[in-house]
Amino acid sequence: MPSLTADDGVRLDYTEYGDPAGRPVVLIAGFKAPATTWRYQVPAFADAGYRVLAVDLRGHGTSEHPDDGVDMGRRGRDVAVVLDALDLRDAVLVGGSMGANTIWSYLSQSDAGRRRVAAAVSIDQTPKMLNDDGWPFGFYGYDAANRDTFFATGIPETGHGTPMAKRGMRLVRLMTAMKGMNREFTPGELALLHDHAVADWRPAIAAAGVPLLFVAGAESEYWPSGHAAASAALAVDGTAVVLDDDGHAANMEQPKAFNRAVLEWLARR
């Protein structure tokens, strides 16, 4: 498996598919998820002529798993490592959940990002998880009163969305894609989760300057699907898509609808 070395010596693994001369599509998974969770996207995007790179950031999949020191800033710098080392240009970044906010972290830190990134896709991730009077699209139940304790032991159940046992093939596809993922949380991972939760990436979206697509699951268990339209309204060129009969892991639960929406959007850009 190909690998890269970050500026602090940590190994980052990735896999590559499709046409080496095609437009690069870089897939960045969510919290703890391995790059193999893109199993439903890789063939579709490769068949469409793209050069597809599924990346394991630090702490994911086969890449190195540091005990601590990983925050959203570090994740953004790891994206820079990948794009710079492979000299990717005109790239499309696709981020699922925390992977989406990792894109905003990268773009907010890197002047090179303006030259390397031509478009980005956010999969069911609000740019601000903390709810307040001006932003009702955060994580259900998370506000100033429990800001520092809400994610102290993991990701709370919200009571929203379709129960797992009633998702049918959506659940089968999700469990197949997530097979083998460690569901326990280390102290370092909980620290990252908190750093993710308190951040506000709305200014980064407004400053991105490239076409952005925000995909939401109509039945997301984490936040209202209205976050997609609200986020798109912040962007210079923003588009929102809400997938019916779909939860948080849109690219895994409804891969055909997700792939179609993204590929059709990309064909116009």
UniProtKB/TrEMBL annotation:
PANTHER family tied to this protein: HYDROLASE ALPHA/BETA FOLD FAMILY (PTHR43194), PEROXISOMAL MEMBRANE PROTEIN LPX1 (PTHR43194:SF2)
InterPro entries in the record: AB_hydrolase_1, AB_hydrolase_fold, Carboxylesterase_BioH, Epox_hydrolase-like
Domain of life according to the entry: Bacteria
UniProt-recorded Gene Ontology molecular function terms: hydrolase activity
Domain AB hydrolase-1: 24-153
Keywords noted in UniProt: Hydrolase
The keyword Hydrolase is assigned to this record: yes
Pfam families associated with the record: Abhydrolase_1
Source organism phylogeny: Bacteria, Bacillati, Actinomycetota, Actinomycetes, Micrococcales
Name of the molecule in the record: Alpha/beta hydrolase
